[in-house]
Every structure is written in C-alpha cells, then in structure tokens.
Amino acid sequence: MFFTKGHGTSNDFVILPDPDGELDLTPALVAALCDRRRGIGGDGVLRVVRSAKHPAGAGHAAEAEWFMDYWNSDGSIAEMCGNGVRVFARYLIANDLATPGPAGLPVATRAGVMTAVVEGETIRVRMSTPRTYAGSTATIGALTIPGLAVDCGNPHLVCGLHDGVQLAGLDLTTAPLVDKALFSSGVNVEFVEAAEDLPGVDKHVRMRVHERGSGETMSCGTGALAVGAVALREAGLTSGSVAVDVLGGRLVITCDESGAWWLAGPAVLVASGETDLVALS
Description:
Binding site for substrate: 11, 72, 82-83, 154, 188, 211-212, 221-222
Catalytic activity: (2S,6S)-2,6-diaminopimelate = meso-2,6-diaminopimelate
Structural class: mainly beta
Distance between the termini: 13 Å
Shape: globular
Subcellular location: Cytoplasm
Organism: Actinoplanes awajinensis subsp. mycoplanecinus
EC number: 5.1.1.7
Mean pLDDT: 96
C-alpha cells in the first residue's frame, strides 16, 4: 500500500489514501504502521477517504468531500486531531484531490466539519468552539495538579503549573492519573507554564501533553486550542490570540471578534513510499 509521512510541529502521521473506503483498517494494523522500529512510525494514522464512503463521514458528505479517519498510534479511534487536520489538508492539495475555495477547504471529522485556510507554509483551521465544563486534577507521582476540563470535540484537561513546578521536570513517560468517572473515554492532559511576552499575541505559554492512545507527543493541536481557550479565559478576554509553544514548535490560537476559533501552524509532507501490509500483520 502507498503511504505518505507528514507532521505538524513534529506531531507525525502515516497518511493512507483510501478514497473508496476499501482498506480493512484494524487496530493491530494501525499500531504496526505507527511502530517506530518495526513499522513506518507515527503518533497516528490519517486515512484519506471520501465522506460518502465512510459511515462516520456520510452525514457530512454534502459539506465536505473528504473525511479524516484518524486513529491513535495504539489503534484506538479519536474524534479529532488539530495537527492532523492541517496535514490532511496539505495532503489533499498536494495530491490534487481538492482545491481550496474562497472560504477555505472543508474537512469532515468525527467532531464535525473543520475549514482549512492555506497561507503558504502555515495552514489555519477553523476549529470547534472549545467548551470549559469542569474542574479536575491530574496526578504525576506524588504531584497533583488542578486543571480545567475542556471539550474541543475531544476531551482535554488543562493543568497550569504554579509554586515553582517546572514544565521540563515533569515525568510524562506514563499516563497521568485522572478522574475516570469524568473522563470515561480517556483524556489528553496538557501541562502549561507562562512564557515571556511576545509581540502580536495577547498571551504566550509553553505546553507539554500526554495524549490518550499515544503517550507524550511533540505537539497536540486540539490541546493547544484547549490551552489557548483557558489562557484567554484566565486573562478575562473574550477574543484574542495565544502563542502556544510545544516541544515541536509553535502554534497560534485565535478567537476572533465573531467568536470563531482558529488553530494556525505548519503542515509538512516529509516523504511518500510503499509498505507491505502482509509484513506488518
């Protein structure tokens, strides 16, 4: 099978073209593709399938021709991936599968239809409106950190660091302990510290993330969206921009005057090739 490898701020994906939904994509195959020693390697798989040809995308077929079927590296399915949708849009355009219109390029996901706007090396995506809905905590070893639960089409817990706790010192090799009653389907946990002021944005923060189904990743687009929403809320702002530095680069979250939320950052296609699915099975 042919594949392309891509990344957004080092959040990397194996992209599989399957326009008519003919591939028998299983959790075991996804995990094998994402294996960094025995497969291609990635934080997840983006299957490129026409919305009308996928059960989860058929309801959006009138709005968006293409559906982003996103799987985490452990073979579990996720509702949405902010870095993934930018890379997905880049793939569609680079392979002449879609041409952005004046309003952008619509992409169907399990969290709804997102719109991608190409601005050179940067792709800006209109995202679902983040919704803060509960307070909770995340525990790492002996350290328990309070946070806010944020729904970005997928679940997040944003934990701000205080009292001298350093972002770089956190051990995210294992999943933080969270409230399983509140997060019954798992949760992406973001840890955040303030950063120096930057021109052109209202807030600047640094973030690390432990993603459900993938472990610590270099970046998480929906996680940056959740962090941006909390940062603006804590600043008392109803609109504005937040620069979010992740391990793999920088993302910018903007809530404009109309209340629309945008995620902007790079989207890069690294290589294309062919893999033997039998060898991976």
